[in-house]
Design goal:
heterodimer; A: alpha+beta; Gyrase A, domain 2; Elongation Factor Tu (Ef-tu), domain 3; six-stranded mixed sheet; 21 strands; about 20% helix; globular; B: alpha+beta; OB fold (Dihydrolipoamide Acetyltransferase, E2P); six-stranded antiparallel sheet; three-stranded antiparallel sheet; about 30% strand
């Protein structure tokens, strides 16, 4: 029996097509995935992301623990509310999960991890916390709604509790504000401005309905995937996993190498991987021929296979197919992808493809 | 409830077949199929003159979600493909039985048409799936 979020009956009422995802029954779309995508780029859309798991990490050892646990450095978080994107690595340098870490105050942090990996993540965190003074609490009691798009913040503003409104609206990009019950992060997974709002499960349906009434369009996992792909954001399990580490997944920028004495899990393996002959480049692909790029298609150059598509699909903003791929270093920009046995021309480009409603690559 | 016109024939793989009464049939995918696929973003149509077997994959419909093979319901020769789909693949979503047709076929054996599902039998296929 798949899990259901506190908003499941709202999705059903809105006629969503429900699909299994990470152990949950989630909305894929509510009619047209492409229209939902455009709503986020042009106005405001919202996603039920209650399947994702907030995990509170609190105590005197919270910071040293996080500096050991994550490849990015939690010590960068000095201003209350500030958020950090980080990978949690295994000793082999593979990615156990990617997460957003929020700094709530001295000795108080909140991580938000992926749905399908949450239980594994928490078990790993607990094991690493052995002997340290800290508490790890899975916040299954919270629901989360991501409201994204150029109009997102303006439409959310009147719906925020009076005591939280001013601080939430003043929060800069990648900062959060909170009161005793609600937590509002100016974060997201679409390349647009917006909020990710965590609320007690009992408040979720009322907030969702107020957002519908405020003309925020419900969007499913389908649009979430094409938006994050256009925005150049990785998907765990597809672009990286326990066997494919950050250096092979375009996530080198999330590894804090300084200070060198910080001994985070996976550090040694990453150092060895940097100059390893098997290391691959992680690139964006724009399909210049006809078709649709999909995960696991082969990338071709000089008549041989030089890599593989990890995430791919149709970009509604570009009206072209785009992808991420892992390719041999030195692959020429003009290459091809094997689509059903035929080479179709493609070009290597630097993601993001789209940010803040603007196309960022040459078509 | 999806639309299943009474005057068409159908396959279990969700193609519809219209008898043009001139020795040719037109083939497309059903309203149920387009709805299940979601927004259609690319269609690979068969070349004119191609000889196809019954149940041979001869076109591909790609939605935002996945690629799906389209099978020829009968053996015969492809005499025309819907070029509109090159630029407007969404015609299949908007008008699956009319503007969204995929190809026209001259079957080797027109009598085989009566061996395909009628509307009631296809309706049952859809109901059994859901």
């Amino acid at each position: 029996m798949a899990l259901r979020t506190p908003l499941f009956s709202e999705h059903e009422r809105l006629g969503a097509r429900i699909v299994p995802f990470g152990g949950w029954d989630m909305p894929l779309h509510y009619g047209s995935q492409i229209e939902e995508h455009h709503a986020v780029r042009r106005a405001a859309g919202m996603f039920d992301v209650s399947h994702m798991r907030p995990v509170d990490i609190e105590g005197p050892d919270a910071l040293p623990f996080l500096r050991r646990l994550l490849a990015n450095d939690a010590a960068k978080l000095t201003a209350p509310g500030k958020a950090l994107y980080a990978c949690m690595l295994n000793p082999q340098g593979g990615v156990i999960d990617d997460l957003i870490l929020y700094f709530r105050g001295p000795e108080r942090y909140r991580a938000v991890v992926n749905a399908g990996t949450a239980d594994k993540d928490i078990a790993w965190m607990q094991a690493q916390a052995e002997g340290r003074q800290l508490n790890i609490q899975s916040r299954d009691d919270l629901a989360m709604i991501a409201v994204q798009g150029p109009d997102a913040r303006a439409r959310v503003e009147p719906l925020l509790p009076d005591g939280l409104r001013a601080s939430a609206m003043q929060a800069g990009p990648f900062f959060a504000a909170e009161d005793a019950h609600w937590f509002v992060g100016r974060t997201g997974y679409t390349g647009e401005d917006g909020f990710e709002i965590m609320v007690p499960s009992a408040d979720a349906a009322a907030l969702w309905r107020s957002l519908v009434a405020a003309d925020v369009r419900p969007c499913g996992l389908g649009a979430r995937d094409t938006l994050r792909l256009e925005a150049g954001m990785n998907l765990y399990g597809q672009d990286m996993d326990e066997t494919v580490g950050p250096l092979d997944a375009g996530l080198g920028w999330t590894i804090a190498r300084e200070p060198q004495e910080r001994d985070f899990i996976g550090r040694e393996a990453l150092t060895a991987r940097r100059d390893h002959p098997d290391r691959r480049d992680f690139v964006g692909l724009l399909l210049t021929g006809r078709g649709v790029l999909r995960p696991h298609q082969s990338v071709l150059a000089d008549g041989r296979v030089v890599g593989e598509v990890t995430s791919g699909g149709f970009s509604p903003t570009l009206e072209r197919s785009i992808a991420f791929a892992r390719v041999e270093p030195g692959t020429p920009a003009e290459c091809a992808v094997d689509i059903r046995g035929k080479p179709v021309s493609a070009r290597i480009v630097k993601p993001p493809f789209v940010r803040q409603g603007r196309i960022c690559i040459d078509l | 409830m999806s639309d299943v016109p009474a005057d068409l024939r159908y396959t279990k793989s969700h193609e519809w077949i219209r008898d043009n009464a001139d020795g040719t049939v037109t083939v497309g995918i059903t309203d149920h199929a387009q709805e299940a696929l979601g927004d259609i973003v690319f269609v690979e149509i068969p070349d004119q003159g191609r000889e196809v077997d019954a149940e041979e994959a001869c076109a591909v419909v790609e939605s935002v979600k996945a690629a799906s093979d389209i099978y020829s319901p009968l053996a015969g020769e492809v005499i025309e493909s819907n070029a509109l789909l090159n630029d407007s693949p969404e015609a299949i979503n908007n008008s699956p039985y009319d503007e969204g047709w995929i190809f026209r076929l001259a079957p080797n054996d027109m009598a085989a048409l009566s061996g395909l599902l009628d509307a009631a039998a296809y309706q049952q296929v859809v109901e059994d799936e859901t």
